[in-house]
Amino acid sequence: MLDESILDDSAALARADTGGLLLGAAAAGARVRTAARLAEEAGIQALRPDGRPRSVLVAGPGPTAAAVADVLAALAAGSCPVLPLHTSGPVAHDLRWTLPGWMGPLDLLLIVTPAGTESGLADLAEQAYRRGCTAAAVAPAKSPIAEALKQAHGITVPFATASNATGQPTGREDPGAFWALLTPLLALTDRIGLLPAPPALIEAVADRLDEVAARCGPVVATYSNPAKTLAAELSESLPVVWSEGLTAAAAGRRFAALLAARAGRPAMTAELPGALAAHEALLAGAFAGGAGQDDFFRDRVEDPQALRLRVVLLGQTAGQAAPAARDLALAHDTPFSELAPADGSSLEAVAELLAVTDFTAVYLALGTGPQPGR
Fold it and tell me: Quick one: which of 217, 201, 261 has its CA closest to 67?
């Protein structure tokens, strides 16, 4: 259960935030600017590619790398297949990646890793070199992965590490790694014509992230803070995240992953308009908003609090399916929340959705107390 009193107590939030989650969310804009500068220093803007690759494969450890691949694929919008390369290792400390048999000189391999020490990724860079594939990586400078890319004649952009006030790496889990990994890939894919992400647009993304941090920060009261408001709404709810558009769908999947990893909350995702048919029976089932209310006079004092569905709609634009989604939820007495970004490019829009939902997952995590492994 969410302790809603903590949401408007910035000192209590600071005490609960031993992992630096709020700082990581608030510093997203700064991480984008640092990562963009490192990409420029690595020579990304000076690249003169021969043309667009046939396909792009993205490899890296953990859910953050998978989310980077997902967002990149959504932004590319079918201009070129962007595929995550899944691991084949039996256990977490012995991850292995294998290039598909069809991959060759016309394809591009992108490696993303905050640690840069995974031997399986170094082997993958060697596989790419043997196949004649172009390879690039975002990894810490002078790491084994950076050395492997050098041997494979690839390019490495140094990972923009999180730092404390003295400018030294904090040494703890990095909640802002997503933006430090994604930003250099945006600069690179802009140069190869995969998607539009020139330096001015990346700076606009950083500005949008700063705006979200100002609206969603811990000192902003719940009634005017969209992230705190959504966290409170999801307190006793089972989230059903609906999305409209490719980039909003990627943001929805990232939100569900963060709810599970940070707050220990399950969530379901679906894309409109297909979600209306796929989840209609769910809204009418045992977890529906009006379920279990048949006996009005029963004693509820000792009843356990039951989770009820709440639809959360993430929209990139004012789409045609949104009114139908609201109508379906209301028809089944299901609470409904909606996040819609301000006007701007698709990259700015998805950045806003990602940032607001990131803050929401953090507030749910801090308000519900310690979770195993956190």
Answer: 261
